[in-house]
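explain this chain.
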Amino acid sequence: MQLRHVKIKGTGKYLPERVVSDAELDQILGTTPGWVNKITGVGTRHYVNTDETASFMGARAAEAALADAGLSFSEVDCLVCTSGTKEQPLPSTAVFIQQAMGQADSGVPAFDIDATCLSFLVGLDVMSYMVEAGRYKNVLLVATEIASVGLNWQDKESSALFGDGAAAVVIGPADTGDSSRILHASLKTYSSGARYSEIAGGGTRLHPQNYTAEDALPYLFHMDGQAIFRKASKLLPDFIADMLNATGNKMDDFRLVIPHQGSAMAMRLLRKKLGIAEDRFLDNTAGHGNTIAASIPMGLHEAIRQGRISRGDRIMLIGTAAGLSLGGMIIEY
């Protein structure tokens, strides 16, 4: 167990204006009516318009989280963007979020932590130790994702899954006698699955200057969903068991399990395989789609708003990410 007396003080969320239905995607993809809904179960997801950048979305979610926490930006001493997509290669997206919040001369440190779909979970894990140590008091974690611009529309199944959006969380030290704390976290990476989910182009190996319209595929998102699911399904039961053993918990001890949101079908299979009761499992896929690293903090935000968790409740955050990585955290909210 890795106990940290750290509290989630506030949460916020932003969804882009454009709503894209399963029926609209059937038309875009040229699939038969109802195919997208059957495969994804999303219903509707949101795509950015030309004015909604990642930093714009992140700033709006961050402002909502600060308002929820009853704090002003002047009380924040670190801003971390925990996203799997970047607004531009350099500098970090966190810098532009700070700017979009009207705080360009604040001096508040701003940087990114990227572990693809698990970026928020990893950022929360890393920065909670900084809070516990007294290095920072109030840390603003922002996950803001634009998947829609990098989708390969020829890969129908994966392109139908994703949506854009942002979520933010403010963390700080728990007060004396407060029940809020982080009990345990785990991250494991199996790089034998590194090619299962990737955008190969855009870095130093396949530099953007070498991009051509005729050879665009390496610069678009690629995912082998079946390979990911097979590997994750084999690894997750033992991964979860190790976390439970480390904390002396059973699945019934959790008020809610908040997973990274893939397809509705994947969520159902995951819940059954791990033996999680339906009323203790947050499936936020409908209305959002897979929002990459924003999906876990969005789920957390929705769970709080819907009254599915209260202060002191024990919850589990769980997910997979490109790499292939597994991540989990046990929290008393």
